[in-house]
Amino acid sequence: MTISITQPPQVAWASGQFTNGPLIRKSTRLQNLTHVFMDEKAWLACDPQQIVYDVEMVDSAPIAGALYTGVTHLQPGKVGDEYFMTRGHFHAQREQGEVYYGLRGSGLLLLQDEKGTARLEPVFPGSVHIIPGFTAHRLINTGNDILSALAVWPCAAGHDYAALTQGFNLRVVEEVGRVQLKEYHHD
């Protein structure tokens, strides 16, 4: 019998960079984040080509039982007073959960259930976040460096961005040099 040893993908914990694997890379720019930030005028004044976050994923077969693994690299910055953040989403198959692991930088993980109840968890190197099913989630970079987090989720989960057309109920802004929370009421 011949046994082969295959080198698996690797992630550099300090940077979150993947090696040794088929990767999918995607950049999300400000122009892709229409109606995500509270201050529409400030968003329109920004460079639409500015990259807000990059995602690197190990290319996995989207079959039942398989898992995706990826790293999000969220840039520091703000639109108006609101910190850069990912679009955020529910899973299309709502019952599917996800795990985040903080690699570098500092920020927050915003979690919101289907009733609109929101909570925040600090993200930092070594933090572990268990995101339960039926929970929308978004990363927010409140630091001065790139915020990187490794994520693992079921391939079958999918993404449902449309369910959040009114956005999340909490926003994270900088006021008087400090991180502040604001309730966000949809007009």
UniProtKB/TrEMBL annotation:
<feature type="domain" description="Glucose-6-phosphate isomerase prokaryote">
    <location>
        <begin position="31"/>
        <end position="184"/>
    </location>
</feature>
<dbReference type="GO" id="GO:0006096">
    <property type="term" value="P:glycolytic process"/>
</dbReference>
<dbReference type="GO" id="GO:0005737">
    <property type="term" value="C:cytoplasm"/>
</dbReference>
<dbReference type="Pfam" id="PF06560">
    <property type="entry name" value="GPI"/>
</dbReference>
<dbReference type="InterPro" id="IPR011051">
    <property type="entry name" value="RmlC_Cupin_sf"/>
</dbReference>
<keyword id="KW-0413">Isomerase</keyword>
<comment type="similarity">
    <text>Belongs to the archaeal-type GPI family.</text>
</comment>
<dbReference type="InterPro" id="IPR010551">
    <property type="entry name" value="G6P_isomerase_prok"/>
</dbReference>
<comment type="pathway">
    <text>Carbohydrate degradation; glycolysis; D-glyceraldehyde 3-phosphate and glycerone phosphate from D-glucose: step 2/4.</text>
</comment>
<protein>
    <recommendedName>
        <fullName>glucose-6-phosphate isomerase</fullName>
        <ecNumber>5.3.1.9</ecNumber>
    </recommendedName>
</protein>
<dbReference type="GO" id="GO:0006094">
    <property type="term" value="P:gluconeogenesis"/>
</dbReference>
<keyword id="KW-0324">Glycolysis</keyword>
<keyword id="KW-0312">Gluconeogenesis</keyword>
<dbReference type="GO" id="GO:0004347">
    <property type="term" value="F:glucose-6-phosphate isomerase activity"/>
</dbReference>
<dbReference type="InterPro" id="IPR014710">
    <property type="entry name" value="RmlC-like_jellyroll"/>
</dbReference>
